[in-house]
Design brief:
Number of domains: 3
Shape: globular
Helix content: 25-40%
Strand content: 25-35%
Number of helices: 11
Distance between the termini: 55 Å
Radius of gyration: 23 Å
Largest sheet: 6 strands, antiparallel
Structural class: alpha+beta
Mean pLDDT: 87
Number of strands: 21
């Protein structure tokens, strides 16, 4: 059973995605502390750091936002071999329009870009690109051709489009209406480029609930369970954005609570544990650090029935699926290193990587399998936009400062 649940008590909102009876994504947000991801600001460059190819931009938050050189270049500059100096691109005191692409985390401020993009239900407006791109998850050549033709017809002022996966089969009129609505938002943003005051919020992206529904709700095989009347009414207003009647797929259940849902609670608890058990008897160990996340796979109690190679392969295949779910559920970003149990057969290695890649296909943050090292460690990168689940619901121990080790012998 697949569904999205929304549990809001006025002060906190918990949103989760359940796939095949297991929790796949989970977010918890304080309603008094709105997120910044996706927001567009007119900011002022506070200082430029030549040695870091970066600048800090005042966007009106407690900490200045970080802008890297690559995120400040025009797109036509970005894809040339010519090297640009930071001072040729941006100057201290300059007023620029930026979009938040990564939430503030710990002592770091938000990360921003000048490459604005405005997402809708079926497409993404890319004002600083003139290309018409199609989601890589759309594999039907006829559909790809259809969407490209629609893109050419509805595009205005040479402003680009990315057709999202859910645009498959959507009528041209609905795609055109959404494109026009996003164009109006962009024009309003541009219209405020040279007006005071600075810094200023120019565009606020949808709240967490509506972002998840917009980006993740599948018209064909999902439903939404919500326990808040106000959110329920607001979601019904989005009915025109969906192919099927949204009213038929939303269930108002005032008795629903994450705290009283045993299977969800068990999945959340597991997502906060260092050790995750596999059904076979094996287990994985997940260690999150500031630099990277290390994941180790072990056979545990599983001894197999045929041979050592078969036992290792079966454990690694099962671990690959669970690792993909845990990465997504914990919202782990950045560099991830997976130490699968050693495999000598190249075909076995290929099977495990294929299983891992297929499991990653459901992840909207698009993990990339970079390489397999000489030590048979699998290197992965995943886009980091928000704090991990662990950092949302836990805090660093003030006594051990997060080390969490107890000395058992005198030195």
């Amino acid at each position: 059973m697949n569904y999205i649940f929304i549990d809001s008590d006025g002060e906190n909102t918990k949103v989760g995605i359940v796939e095949e009876g297991r929790l796949a994504e989970f977010y918890s947000e304080d309603n008094n502390k709105a997120g910044l991801y996706g927001n567009v600001y007119r900011g002022r460059v506070a200082n430029v750091l030549k040695g870091m190819d970066a600048a800090f931009v005042d966007i009106g938050q407690e900490k200045n936002a970080y802008l890297h050189l690559n995120d400040a270049l025009h797109l036509d500059q970005l894809y040339t071999k010519e090297k640009y100096n930071l001072e040729d691109v941006i100057r201290g005191g300059e007023e620029i329009i930026v979009q938040v692409i990564k939430e503030p985390l710990g002592t770091k401020g938000a990360k921003v870009t000048t490459h604005i993009s405005l997402p809708g239900r079926y497409l993404v407006l890319t004002p600083y690109s003139n290309k018409i791109n199609i989601s890589k998850k759309i594999l039907n050549n006829n559909e790809i051709s259809r969407l490209k033709e629609i893109g050419k017809k509805i595009r205005k002022d040479n402003i680009g489009i990315i057709f999202r996966t859910v645009s498959v089969g959507v009528d041209k009129s609905l795609l055109e209406d959404e494109y026009q609505a996003l164009m109006e938002i962009y024009q309003k943003i541009e219209g405020q480029r040279n007006f005071l005051p600075t810094p200023k919020l120019l565009y606020k992206d949808l709240d967490l609930v509506y972002q998840i529904v917009r980006d993740k709700f599948n018209d064909r095989d999902s439903k939404i369970i919500v326990n808040n009347k106000e959110i329920y009414k607001n979601l019904l207003l989005l009915d025109d954005y969906f192919l099927d009647k949204l009213v038929e797929r939303i269930e108002l259940n005032l008795d629903f609570s994450v705290d009283n849902h045993m299977s969800i609670q068990m999945d959340i608890k597991e997502a906060l544990d260092r050790k995750v058990s596999l059904k076979s008897g094996g287990y994985i160990v997940i260690d999150e650090t500031e630099a990277l996340t290390a994941i180790d796979v072990n056979t545990g109690k599983y001894i197999g029935a045929f041979s050592l190679d078969d036992t290792v392969l079966r454990t690694n295949l099962e671990a690959a699926v669970e690792i993909s779910r845990q990465i997504r559920l914990r919202d782990i970003g950045g560099i991830v290193i997976i130490d699968f149990i050693d495999m000598k057969d190249d075909e076995h290695i290929s099977n495990v990587l294929s299983k891992l890649s297929k499991a990653f296909s459901k992840d909207r943050n698009k993990p990339v399998i970079v390489d397999v090292t000489k030590l048979c460690l699998v290197e992965i990168t995943r886009k980091k936009t928000r704090p991990t689940l662990d950092s949302q619901v836990t805090t660093i121990c003030p006594t051990c400062n997060g080390i969490g080790r107890v000395r058992i012998n005198k030195y």
